[in-house]
DNA sequence: TTGACATATTCTTATATAAGAATATATAGT
DNA sequence: ACTATATATTCTTATATAAGAATATGTCAA
């Protein structure tokens, strides 16, 4: 009963800014630990530790090549977050206001190309 | 140097599942603390504590009415998360494949010359 | 005022970091 | 084997919860 582990799920894993930084860097393609370390303001051990967390929630994968480890992003693991947040998007995005209005008018006003005999009010 | 506070930013605030539950409930409209408590598997004090965190990051607002407090969602505060995750959407959503190719072309190899005729493999 | 109801706060306890320092492990080259 | 390089792990320290229990605060009504 303390905070959930950072490895509990993707939501917790990305709460740490440094890890989001790593994810952003990996979006450009795979990077070695050294590559990441050079661009971040972190020592190598910390980078490895953050990568370990990201690996545990499967946000990243590793490829071994000699003494290097190339980490790459499994972006699809971010989809649950995307979907969760997107479910609220209509509450702030006016683009979705029109969609809502459109969906509502579908119930009373037929559109071209689609027959609509469902007229609940 | 421990974990960031849950109130440090929205990313940390929503890492807690119960708080996401509260947010989801508030998406339907404002709710009193009691309303929330009844639907969650939490005691009232915990609900109040979670609401306090959400309020500190401005994800929710309160309206006082008699002895009740009605909390409502400020969904737009989720936009930073949405935007951040959406910036990776092209990496998993094939709908964005063409956009991805275009963006990669735009930012390929800053050191290797800026003109790049789509010869990324 | 007293009482009931609604919500917030305080304190405790178990637990989990994140960074830094030091060290360990692994691999390649000579 | 020895050395340099690349990465991972261990230990320490400061800090921050989240839930539970108990209590405090606030508000309305009789």
Q: How much is the average pLDDT of chain A?
A: 86
List low-confidence stretches of chain A. Answer: 110-121
Q: How many beta-strand elements of chain A?
A: 3
Oligomer: homodimer
Distance between the termini of chain A: 48 Å
Structural class of chain A: alpha+beta
User: What is the helix tally of chain A?
Assistant: 6
- Major sheet of chain A: 3 strands, antiparallel
Compressed to H and E, one letter per element, the order of chain A equals: HHEHHEEHH
Radius of gyration of chain A, in angstroms, nearest whole number = 22 Å
Work out the helicity level of chain A: 40-55%
What is the topology, as strand order, of the major beta sheet of chain A? 1-3-2
Shape of chain A: elongated
Strand content of chain A: 5-15%
- Could you tell me which chain pair has the largest interface and how many residues each side has? A-B, 29 and 29 residues
How would you describe the overall organization of this protein?
The structure is a homodimer of 121-residue chains. Chain A is 45% helix and 12% strand. The model of chain A is unreliable at 110-121 (pLDDT under 50). The N and C termini of chain A lie far apart (48 Å). Chain A is an alpha+beta fold and 121 residues long. Chain A has a three-stranded antiparallel β-sheet. Chain A is elongated and about 60 Å long. Chain A has six helices and three strands; from the N terminus they run ααβααββαα. Chain A binds a DNA duplex (30 and 30 nucleotides) through residues 1-6, 16, 18, 32-34, 42-52, 66-69.
């Amino acid at each position: 009963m303390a905070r959930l582990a950072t490895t509990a799920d993707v939501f917790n894993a990305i709460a740490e800014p440094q890890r989001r930084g790593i994810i952003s860097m990996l979006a450009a393609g795979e990077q070695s630990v050294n590559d990441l370390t050079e661009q971040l303001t972190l020592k190598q051990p910390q980078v490895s530790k953050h990568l370990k967390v990201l690996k545990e929630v499967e946000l990243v994968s590793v490829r071994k090549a000699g003494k290097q480890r190339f980490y790459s992003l499994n972006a699809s693991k971010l989809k649950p977050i995307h979907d969760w947040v997107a479910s609220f998007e209509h509450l702030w995005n006016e683009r979705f206001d029109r969609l809502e209005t459109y969906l509502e008018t579908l119930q009373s006003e037929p559109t071209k190309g689609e027959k609509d005999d469902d007229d609940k009010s």
